[in-house]
Amino acid sequence: MAIIGKNIQEAIKFLEANEVIGLPTETVYGLAGNAFSTEAVTKIFEVKNRPTFDPLIVHTSSIERISDFVREIPVKAQLLAEKFMPGPLTLLLPKKENISDLVTSGLETVAVRIPNHPLALELLRNLDFPLAAPSANPFGYISPTSAQHVDNQLGMKIKYILNGGECAVGIESSIIGFNGDEIVVYRKGGLAIEDIESVVGKVQIQEYSSSNPQAPGMLKSHYAPRTKLIILNSEPEYRPFRIHNSKTAFLGFKDFQPNVPRENQLILSPTGDFREAAKNLFAYMRALDARGFDIIYAEFLPEMDLGRAINDRIRRAATQE
Ligand code: AMP
Ligand code: MG
What we know:
Layout: E1 3-5, H1 8-16, E2 21-23, E3 30-34, H2 38-48, E4 57-59, H3 63-66, H4 75-84, E5 89-94, H5 101-104, E6 109-113, H6 118-125, E7 131-132, H7 147-154, E8 160-162, E9 174-179, E10 182-187, H8 193-200, E11 204-205, E12 228-231, E13 248-252, E14 265-267, H9 274-289, E15 295-298, H10 307-317
Parallel strand pairs: 1-8, 4-6, 5-9, 10-11, 12-15, 13-14, 13-15
Antiparallel strand pairs: 2-3, 3-7, 4-7, 5-6, 9-10
Bound molecules: adenosine monophosphate and magnesium ion (MG).
C-alpha cells in the first residue's frame, strides 16, 4: 500500500525523481507526474492501464504559468480562465514543443487546468514543471474522490498519495475546446454549462463516441461499477416487482424507491441539491458496488445545472447490453 500523507516535500521528492503520486483536487483524485518527463508520463499510462490514445490533462498553479507550455490563449479562453480558474474547468489550447505527443495523444492541443485545492496548488507552486494527471483509477472504473479510494485500487503501484480529504466537487472537470469562433464542450463536468454560457454565450455540446479520439473521455462506457447498473427511468419494460428483492440496490437523487429495501438505497441529495449530489455520486457508486448486489438501479436527475454532468456519468456507468 502507498503512504498516505500531507507532506508536500515528500510529494516533491517523488515527483522530481519522475515517480507518480496520488494528487488531491476538488474534482477527483489525480495520478500525477512531471508533464515534461517522458519517463513520468509513461508511468502514468502504465499504472492506470490507460490506452495511449486517451490524452492527459496538464495541471498548473496560475494563468501566467499556462504560457510555459501553451502557444496562445484565445480571447474567450482567457475570459473563462479569469472567471473560473482555479476551478473545475479544463481548456484545450495549442501546445508548445515541451509537451510531448504522449501527453496529448498526438493532438496539437493540450488540456490545461488549475485545480482549486489548497494542497494541490501549494504543491504546483513549488514545482518548476506542470503535472500531467488523469483520474487516479484503473481505466474505465469509477473515479476516486478520497485518498483511500486511490489506495484501494492503485496503492500497490504507487508510493505516495497526498491526502487532501474528500473532493469538494466530486465529478471531473468540464472540458472546453475552441474551434475558430465556436466553443465546444467535450465533457460535461463540475462547471455547469449555464455558468460557462453566462460568460461566453452559447456553446456546442459534443456527444460521446467510442471511436473518436478527439472526443475527450468520451468512451461510451466509463466510470463503471463492476455490478450491473440499470437506469430505472430509461427502461420502458420496467415493472416495480422486478426490483423487489434483497439483491437489488437503488441509487437515487432525492427520494427512496418504495420497492427496494431501505438499507439497499443511497440517496445523492435528500434536499435535491445538485452540488451535494455530484460530491456523493462516485463514493456512493463505489459503496453500492462493494456490497455484492445483483443489480444497482439508478435514476437520472433533472437535465439541468450539474444534473447534466451527473446524468452523463450515470449513462456511462450503466451496463451496455
Ligand atoms: P481524465 O483526466 O481521466 O479525467 O481524462 C481527461 C480527459 O481529457 C480525457 O478523457 C482526454 O480524452 C481529454 N483530453 C485531454 N487532452 C485532450 C486534448 N488535447 N484534446 C481533447 N481531449 C483531451
Ligand atoms: Mg478519468
